[in-house]
Amino acid sequence: MTMSAAAGFVMLFRWFWWRVNGWADFAAQILSLPVTLFFVRGPGQAWVRNFTQWCGGHTADDNYGVAFLFTVAVTTALWVLVMLATPPEPPEKLAAFFRRVRPYGFWSRVARACPECVVTDNFWHDLRLYGLGLTLSLSLLFGMGLLLLGRPVLALALLGLGAVAGPLLVRAINRHYAPAPESATPAVAIGREPPVSGSMKSPKP
């Protein structure tokens, strides 16, 4: 899991930043294994133990958490260096990807080459939906678990938080995906003239 998480950031960032290239992805996949072994089985264990003790931790779980963070941080720094040292993807590939996916994020340089593409999604709105959904699911999950374990105070607090996040999430989704109001102007069938009112009819000859 540590190795997968170490290489996972590049898979996420390549959707939000045009500069992430194939070499960065390749470097993350290759370097995640030796970096993980360095901190879990190699000389980096001493650094992990020292930092864990400095933070007040003493258990094996504490060491694993610190090793996890060190592995992710070092692997991310390495693939970023590889990315900056290698050329970006060809402009035509970036433009083709942008036209097909229309991603938001740090794509303004590519977007200027594709003026016909309009990105309608809103990153901050989607982040809000993600936060509300995560709050709802985790509150219900841990709230029910704590309730079964006999900790009603914290359980009810989490369930109350979920009860607040749920309606907010539903309201935000309904507001975002609500159909556009229909125009009051009646549609005119193609190939037919619009009906003429009685006062506008021309007199018969």
Summarize the helices and strands and which ones pair or pack:
Layout: H1 2-13, H2 22-40, H3 44-54, H4 60-85, H5 91-101, H6 108-111, H7 123-148, H8 152-177
Helix pairs in contact: 1-2, 1-4, 2-4, 3-4, 7-8
Number of helices: 8
The radius of gyration computed from the alpha-carbon positions, rounded to a whole number of angstroms, is 28 Å
Extended strand count: 0
Low-confidence stretches: 184-194, 197-203
Largest sheet: none
Mean pLDDT: 84
Query: Span from first to last CA?
Result: 88 Å
Overall structural class, as computed from helix and strand content, comes to mainly alpha
Give the % helix. 55-70%
Shape: flat
Order of helices and strands: HHHHHHHH
- Percentage of β-strand residues: under 5%
From the structure above, extract its key features.
205 residues, 8 helices, mainly alpha
Structural commentary:
The chain has 205 residues and is mainly α. Among the domains are: 2-89, no CATH class; 123-177. Helix content is 66%, strand content 0%. The protein has helices at 2-13, 22-40, 44-54, 60-85, 91-101, 108-111, 123-148, 152-177. Mean pLDDT is 84; it is low at 184-194 and 197-203.
